[in-house]
């Protein structure tokens, strides 16, 4: 059975707290696993969440600040220790190549897995598979930072009433899906386009074109909201978003499920992030991320 869900491993910004680990997010997409921003402690959070090294096919790092990347060393070594049987690809800003190399070879270990380095240096597609296209967009932060977007190819939804109108049933349903035409009836006549699911991951950034491009039409948007709206000046100065800004992006982009995360330790009431997001006019499904929570990708 295919599974599409976000497993939240950590939600803190800058420093962990008693209740929030450094960042870490695993997207399960059918049989693939994409690990985003493994901060310090990610390996232990994986254990607590029931995520194995074998579940990781890609690692996507937005930028090289410690709360988003210090867990790389442990994760990479665990992938090799467990002798993951498939190759793993790592995406990260090309400008941080030296940081990636330092983390990859932070200590001695035996390399048993083929880890492909695929640094990001410009907007555009990073990988195209049968299941999805992965692309990156430049964000606005004091160090180079990229957000990621995963898009499923569009498919078709068979409409039973149209099949019945054309007298198509039984094995003929499979034939018209496979061949595109049956006795002069085309697939277009008995089906409609089913838009592919879209997932977006936006971490440390000010408002910029990249944020809006990543969020556009997303079924599930994971986005930082480090600050509350009253601290918008701090947010801008440090290259971050507020809860209201993130929610306004989601509102304007038509996001179906918004996940706010990456919270500053200065705030003690997570419910305030939800109140400000609603005040900004976002009326879709909303989650305030907590460590170890699971969020399904909304179905089409």
What does this structure look like?
α9 crosses α10. Helices cover 26% and strands 26% of the residues. The strands form four sheets. Strands 6-5-4-3-2-1-18 form a seven-stranded mixed sheet. A seven-stranded mixed sheet has the order 7-8-9-14-15-16-17. A two-stranded antiparallel sheet has the order 10-13. It has helices at residues 42-49, 66-69, 72-81, 97-104, 160-165, 171-179, 209-215, 232-238, 243-253, 271-279, and strands spanning 4-10, 24-29, 32-36, 58-60, 88-91, 115-117, 124-128, 133-138, 146-151, 155-158, 181-182, 185-186, 191-194, 198-202, 220-224, 257-261, 285-288, 294-296.
Helix-strand layout with pairing:
Blueprint: E1 4-10, E2 24-29, E3 32-36, H1 42-49, E4 58-60, H2 66-69, H3 72-81, E5 88-91, H4 97-104, E6 115-117, E7 124-128, E8 133-138, E9 146-151, E10 155-158, H5 160-165, H6 171-179, E11 181-182, E12 185-186, E13 191-194, E14 198-202, H7 209-215, E15 220-224, H8 232-238, H9 243-253, E16 257-261, H10 271-279, E17 285-288, E18 294-296
Parallel strand pairs: 3-4, 4-5, 5-6, 14-15, 15-16, 16-17
Antiparallel strand pairs: 1-2, 1-18, 2-3, 7-8, 8-9, 9-14, 10-13, 11-12
Helix pairs in contact: 9-10
């Amino acid at each position: 059975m295919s599974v599409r869900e976000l497993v939240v491993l950590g939600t803190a910004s800058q420093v962990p707290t008693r209740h929030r680990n450094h960042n870490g997010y695993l997207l399960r997409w059918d049989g693939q696993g994409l690990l985003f921003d493994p901060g310090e402690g990610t390996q232990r959070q994986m254990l607590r969440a029931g995520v194995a090294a074998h579940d990781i096919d890609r690692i996507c790092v937005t930028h090289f600040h410690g709360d988003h990347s210090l867990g790389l060393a442990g994760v990479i070594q665990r992938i090799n220790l467990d002798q993951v049987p498939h190759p793993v690809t790592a995406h990260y800003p090309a400008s941080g190549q030296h940081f990636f190399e330092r983390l990859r070879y932070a200590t001695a270990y035996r390399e048993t897995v083929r880890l492909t380095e695929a640094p990001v240096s410009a907007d555009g597609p990073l990988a195209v598979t049968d299941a999805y296209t992965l692309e990156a967009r430049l964000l606005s932060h004091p160090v180079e930072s990229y957000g990621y977007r995963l898009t499923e190819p569009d498919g078709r939804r068979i409409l039973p009433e149209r099949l019945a109108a054309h007298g198509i049933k039984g094995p003929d349903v499979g034939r018209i899906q496979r061949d595109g035409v049956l006795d002069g009836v085309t697939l277009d006549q008995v089906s409609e386009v089913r838009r592919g699911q879209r997932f977006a991951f936006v971490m440390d950034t000010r408002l910029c074109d990249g944020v809006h491009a990543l969020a556009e039409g997303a079924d599930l948007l994971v986005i930082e909201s480090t600050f509350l709206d009253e601290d918008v000046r701090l947010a801008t100065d440090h290259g971050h978003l507020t809860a209201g800004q993130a929610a306004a992006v989601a509102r304007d982009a038509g996001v179906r499920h918004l996940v706010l995360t990456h919270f500053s330790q200065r705030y003690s009431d997570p419910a305030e992030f939800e109140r400000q997001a609603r005040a900004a006019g976002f009326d879709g499904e909303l989650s305030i991320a907590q460590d170890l929570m699971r969020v399904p990708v909304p179905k089409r």
